[in-house]
Amino acid sequence: MDENQAVQYLESLIGQTLRVHATDTRIFVGAFKCTDSARNIILASTYEYRFPGPSAVRDAATDAENQDPAIGAASQNVQVNMTSRFIGLVVVPGQHITKIELEETPQQSRVRETLKKS
C-alpha cells in the first residue's frame, strides 16, 4: 500500500467506531477522529474497558465455591465481567497501542462486502 492509499484508507475510517487495545490491557472503544505521524489516535465518545483485577477474580471464585461447596473451586468456571467507564475524548499514545480493530455493525459489513464485489 503506497502512502496515498494509506491516507485514503485512514480518511475512510474517520467517524467509524474503533477498538484500540493498549499495552496495559485496557481497551478503548470510540469514534475515530484523527491520528498523527507518531501514531497517536484521538477517539471521541470513548468507553474504557479494563479486565478484572486478581482480587475480583479471587472474590468471584470464593463466591462460586460458597454457593456449591461440593464442587471444588479448581473445577469451576468463574465468569467475571470487565469494568467500563465513559471517558469522552481521549488520546491514545501510539507507543502504547498493541492492536486496532474496526467495529462494524452487521449492516456495515454487508455493505463493505457488496462494494468489494462490484
UniProtKB/TrEMBL annotation:
Gene3D superfamilies: 2.30.30.100
Ranges for domain Sm: 8-102
Source superkingdom: Eukaryota
Transmembrane segments: none
Pfam family, one: LSM
Record PANTHER family: N-ALPHA-ACETYLTRANSFERASE 38, NATC AUXILIARY SUBUNIT, SMALL NUCLEAR RIBONUCLEOPROTEIN-ASSOCIATED PROTEIN B AND N
Listed name of the protein: Sm domain-containing protein
Source organism of this protein record: Aspergillus caelatus
Lineage of the organism: Eukaryota, Fungi, Dikarya, Ascomycota, Pezizomycotina
